[in-house]
Each structure stands twice: as structure tokens, then as C-alpha cells.
Amino acid sequence: MGQRQSHRGRHPEDARLFAAKWVPALRDAVADLSFLLSRGYSEKAALKVVGDHYQLALRQRRAILGGACSDTSLERRNAHRITAADLCGQSLTVDGYNALITAESALAGGVLLKGRDGCIRDLASIHGSYRKVEETLPAIAMIGMLLEKLHVGEVTWYFDAPVSNSGKLKALLGEEAARHDWPWAVRLANNLDKLLAASPSIVVTADGWILDRAARWVNLTARIASGIHPPPEVIDLGE
Fold first, then answer.
1. How far is residue 87's CA from residue 63's CA, in Å, rounded to a whole number?
2. Euclidean distance between the first and final Cα of the chain, in Å?
């Protein structure tokens, strides 16, 4: 993954785009977007209407899209959610990039957003190629220690095979799992979203498409963020 080190932190415009003065408008935008989605509007059409109405920048539109969901989706997600307290001995299937990049962003001070469904999401993206950053190993360790504390059973991590450097990341997680004696398997897969949505195990993800289809899922992003000291700022868009 190369020797160059960087951070999974904030975009240069984030201090302005997610300043306190913007938060009320972003919350209203999430509520309006959720209203339209609940009434059958397509995601693309609803996002344009709401984004144009509030004059939102592209990153702000990405933020409200992650924070919003229809009433039907919210009801289903709540019904299929497993609490962290019920994970003892349970097998987990982890949406690898989703969990890892959120943890990296939290450690690096990136923007974290709490959506209507209670999940915490980041705004980082990998654009088809993953690069290890200074927060990668600490993020893996933080997730590993949390899963160990929760006494979970076997954990299977999945990463998108088409993403460049997924193989190197697979090897890195395998090394860390062996070093800490964590019961992890790490796999690469195509059509990952469909695989995770069909998993019989409890799925660890904040991806809305998967949450709307998974039989069981757990919201670990909030627990991951709360384990950082000092805790990162989380902008609640679901209020």
C-alpha cells in the first residue's frame, strides 16, 4: 500500500460546510428528504429538490443522503437491529471498508454524522483504491478490542475485491488477528453489498442499502466512536 502516510481526516471545506450555523438547516434537510423518500420519490430526484432548496454543497448533500431514510426503512432497520449487549458468542460479518474507514475518520478528526437510524457515518471515500493511513493500525486495534470486550464469536471481514490494495489490507488484518489471537477470517468478494445483505450472521455496517435487507445487523459505529478519548464530535442530523 506504499510508504506514504496521510490521514483520513477532514476535507479542507468541512470546517465551513459543517459549521454550527449549518446544522439546523442540515437537520431540516434530512427531515425533508426523509419525508419525500417516505412518499416514494426517487433518491436522486428527492436529493436534488432538497439540496437545491437549502442551497447545499455536494458534500452537504452526501451528508443528508446518508442521514435520511424513509419511514418504512427506519421501521425495518429498528426491527432487525441487534444490540451490542446481545453479541456474546454471536458470529459477525463485517462490511470491512465501511467499518474501518469510519474508525479511521473518527481517529483522525473527520466529520462524523449521526443519521435518522442512529448510525454514525463518515464522508471519506476511497475512489476505487484504498491507501493505508496513520490511523489504519490503531483503527484495527480499536475495533478488535471492542469485539473482544463484547465476547463475540467468529468474525468474518469482507472487502471489495475490485478495490485496489484490498489484498494488502486483507494480509494486514490477518497479521493483526494472528498477533492478538482474534478469531477472524478476512475475505475478498465481488458483489459485496448483496453478499452482506444475504448473510445469515449479524452484519456490521452503516450502509443503508444493506440495512434495508439484512436479516440482522448491529450498530457498532457509535460504540467505536465512543471508545475514542477525547470522543470525536458527532453531528446529529436525526434530531
1. 29
2. 39
24-69 pLDDT tens trace: 999 999 999 999 999 999 999 999 999 999 999 999 999 999 999 9
Residue 41, SS3? coil
Contact in structure between 155 and 176 (CB atoms under 8 Å)? no
pTM: 0.92
**DSSP letter (8 states) at residue 174:** H
Find how far residue 198's CA is from the centre of its chain: 18
For residue 2, pLDDT beyond 70: no
Query: Closest Cα to residue 28, out of 58, 62, 67, 79?
Result: 67
**Region class of 98: left (phi > 0), else alpha (psi between -120 and 50), else beta:** alpha
**φ, ψ dihedrals at 145, nearest 5°:** -65, -35
HEC-encoded secondary structure of the chain: CCCCCCCCCCCCCHHHHCCHHHHHHHHHHHHHHHHHHHCCCCHHHHHHHHHHHCCCCHHHHHHHHHHCCCHHHHHHHHHHEECHHHCCCCCEEEEHHHHHHHHHHHHHCCCEEECCCCCEEECCCCCCECCCCCCHHHHHHHHHHHHHHCCCCCEEEEEECCCECHHHHHHHHHHHHHHHCCCEEEEEECCHHHHHHCCCCEEECCCHHHHCCCCCEECCHHHHHHCCCCCCCEEECCC
- Cell numbers describing residue 57: 454543497
Could you give the strand order of the β-sheet that contains 120-122, starting from the edge strand earlier in sequence? 120-122, 112-114, 234-236
Residue 24 DSSP one-character state: H
